[in-house]
Amino acid sequence: MLGDRIVVKPHHTKAAEGVYEKVCGKVTGSEGSLAMTVAGESGSGKSEIASEIARLFSQRESLKCVIFHQDDYFIRPPKTNDKARLDDIGNVGTHEVLLDLMNEHILLAKDPGTGTVVKPLIDYDNDRVLEEETDVSGVNLVIAEGTYTTSLKDADIRVFIDRTYHDTLEHRKERGRDELNEYTEKILVIEHEIISSHKKEADIVIGRDYRVV
Q: Which listed residue, 44, 60, 179, 180, has the most CB atoms within 10 A of its CB?
């Protein structure tokens, strides 16, 4: 997403190292490309951990990694989506996101015959949905990160960050992307109820201390 910023800290690297150690053999031993999801609640470090996992496989194994960010697959751009939520809090949920399209793009990326994928790209500052071409030729590991990505049906490895919106408060303050108010907390409660139910589907769980369990 244009306008977003990722700040990687040691605990993100620590979590990524744990995931890398768990799945390295499976990824390097695969005859084809694999898809991994990195999911968790708002502010849990999904983007940072996903970027570190990609870096580790790229630097240590010389594998090509591509990351798809769920934020780019929201039906509405962020400010418009916030208004829709404000008008009706029932708009909060998985139906806000083009998860089927995201899954389709994962499959395309895993197909060795695909050269590029034309995907949505959110322009945060200008509240627009653009498009971009992503080179997926010869990709070894596709990483899909986002709150609801555990539910992507064609993922091969599911990583879940087990930190609630209470745990992530400081990170959300630091990121400064969302207003911290009573209404935001109501949204986070709804998201928590949805996302926490996905933990049981995970292959790898990152604990509150960023250790892989």
A: 44
